[in-house]
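pasting for ref
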Amino acid sequence: MADALKLAVVGHTNVGKTSLLRTLTRDVGFGEVSHRPSTTRHVEGARLSVDGEALVELYDTPGLEDAIALLDFFDRLDGPGERLDGPARVERFLQGGEARQRFEQEAKVLRQLRASDAGLYVIDAREPVLAKYRDELEVLASCGKPLLPVLNFVASGSHREEQWQEALARLGLHARVRFDSVAPPQDGEQRLYESLALLLEPARHTLKRLADDHKAQRRMRLTSAHQLIAALLIDCAACRRGVSEQAQDQATGALRQAVRQREQACVEALLKLYRFRSGDAQASDLPLLDGRWGDDLFNPETLRLLGVRVGSGMAAGAAAGAGVDLMVGGLTLGLAALAGAIAGGALQTARGYGGRLLGKLKGERELTVDDAVLRLLALRQRQLLLALDARGHAALTAVAVSSPDDDRWRQGKLPAELNRARAHPQWSTLNPGARPDQPERQQTLEQLAERLSAEPGEGR
């Protein structure tokens, strides 16, 4: 087994070195990220593995703080009649007393870079191109290791990317990559590894394996995420509870709360899947519609903004006839019609609905989740997924989700899978006696997940 590729992450203090490592490792807990300077004081390492094999070792280093003075010190290291090259100067510096005193932080950086195959020089692209950064690059170049500049925070509206590109070119650094650790581009890691391969030809195969695995892992996360959303929608579509007319208000409130909790469980599962903290998003933080925020999925005015005909939120009604579900719109049947449905219904109808129809004859009603609520759940979770898929693990703020504008879920017919789920209350984990392990439910869930993944905007 070949040794793992060693990469030192270097740069000025507070430019996002630890942030870059968090995003590359998908570890929100790696190191310490802060707006305070000199947060990282020691070298910390992390590994990127594929199939249990460590391919890359990443080393987070302290920030360079006084490269100007260090460069001047380098000029005085040559002895009489000597003309040391860069690596020789660095070695002499590391063996001297200044490396343990005045330039202790810089020494840690250079020592790690010398022990690595290459360095990632992280740049805060929002900063102006100052002389101290040019001196840092000259000091680092003295180590004799390939350097790949990484332009960080390029998603910010105040970046100075063009100035940095020009300055790097003037220094002879033509291989560089833009990578925002808070909002990384979809192909950001692939471009980073491809740029590294230009500098490290022997490591090209290793870096390609890493890039291919990154793409495969992303596809797997999207597949799993769509299955989580599909399970939420099926649970809510199949949910129905019998209740007497006297207890209808209380039961409606309880069912609404159950739906809210089920949505929050989906949010937490998505956060775990994408390896974010459980507190990075809450269902109550997800947008409703047209810029409105809140957690009331059942506000009639909010649902009206969907642009669809709204029934009664949590509708009261009954199931009737040959599997036709009339509860969604809040419709009810007269007792005569119900009696006729029982008397003239097919055997399958009697088995599937007989108990519920008899309950209706006894004055019981059933509660179900309105179509408009299902649409809103789908909109919110799809927007959350899009936000998580584009979020870097260095982000310190809560997940920002835009107001959904997905007309496919605002209007038209609901997917056939949800209409099928309405006829199978045993599929919903929100119902007593649920049997979510039934093969037909799993097949329906996978079909709905595939439908979700095929819709535009999912990054496939």
